[in-house]
Amino acid sequence: MKGLQGAVDLIILQTLATMGPQHAYGIARRLLQISANRYRLNQGTLYPALVRLEQEKWIAAKWDTTASGREAKYYSITRSGQAALNRETQNWRQLVDVMDKLLSAEEG
């Protein structure tokens, strides 16, 4: 995972690992909730990421009925997706640490 694409992938994988199977709207809604409405995943970003993750076999999808009675594709994290999430979480934390040090050095 690289750059912004990697951040979106990580958001999706973590959401599914934490909340269980979700449809695309549920994933987008979770990011809004967690970010206090500051960050929004639009369809042009979310759906290609879901397709990419499904092709990587990091998520699996199946059609089901929502609470409101509509048909929706529900995504769940796979075993290889969980392994990728663990690996990429560590990479992300290392990047955040480097950026924090860099930004702190710039302030001083």
Q: What integer value in Å does the Rg equal?
A: 15 Å
Number of contiguous helices: 4
What level of helicity do the residues show?
A: 55-70%
Strand content: 5-15%
CATH superfamily: Winged helix-like DNA-binding domain superfamily/Winged helix DNA-binding domain
**Named CATH topology:** Arc Repressor Mutant, subunit A
Give the ordered list of helices and strands.
Answer: HEHHEEH
Structural class: alpha+beta
Poorly predicted runs are none
Q: How confident is the prediction overall: mean pLDDT? A: 92
For the secondary structure, the number of strands is 3
Number of domains: 1
* Neighbour order of strands in the largest sheet: 1-3-2
Give a brief rundown of this model:
65% of the residues lie in helices and 15% in strands. It is an alpha+beta fold and 108 residues long. It is globular.
Please provide a written account of the structure.
With 108 residues, this protein is α+β, with helices and mostly antiparallel strands. The protein has one domain: Arc Repressor Mutant, subunit A (Orthogonal Bundle). It contains four helices and three strands. A three-stranded antiparallel β-sheet has the order 1-3-2. Strand 2 (59-65) and strand 3 (71-77) form a beta hairpin. Helix 1 (3-19) packs across helix 3 (43-55) and helix 1 (3-19) crosses helix 4 (79-107). The chain is globular and about 55 Å long.
